[in-house]
């Protein structure tokens, strides 16, 4: 593998952030709860696996800032600066932790081995980190929205844990469907 051109990595990251943000406007609530499927996690995970940890974290951070500006302020998702920072730039950047497995996944693909287990593992790390930050913010800042008879931390764990599980299921389904084209998505030509 040759060293990638920084402009190519930056351009790819901008396209991925735009795609992730566009996908966030697709309705994604499950039932009457606040459990959400976030379709933008898929392109972000692929980008982090393709380009590595630093570009993945950077793209996630930019996506979080963009989502805060375009949706957070207008939807009531912004309560105060600390909560906004934790739930938008920080939580979205955490998705870039998927990039921790970039080298291992690429090695598996190049050696004609199945990378599915590693992709699930590292996607789980990135997705868990995102929803753990939402869980913390949920317990601290969103506790007033919990049912009166429920502990706010349990409510936050149910909502954010449910969202984590729903997004991991979405990732698993897409991994099975896309398993034949991993090489095209993850291995770079530059």
From TrEMBL:
Gene3D superfamilies associated with the record: 1.10.1760.20
Q: Which GO terms describe its molecular function?
A: thiamine transmembrane transporter activity
Q: Is Transmembrane among the key words of this record?
A: yes
GO cellular component terms, A-Z: plasma membrane
* Segments passing through the bilayer: 32-49, 61-79, 85-103, 115-133, 153-178
Q: Where is the signal peptide?
A: none
Family matches, as Pfam families: Thia_YuaJ (PF09515)
Q: Does the keyword Transmembrane helix apply?
A: yes
* Protein keywords: Membrane, Transmembrane, Transmembrane helix
Against InterPro entries, the record matches this protein to:
Thia_Transptr_ThiT
The protein depicted here goes by the name Proton-coupled thiamine transporter
* Naturally occurring in which organism (per UniProt): Companilactobacillus nodensis DSM 19682 = JCM 14932 = NBRC 107160
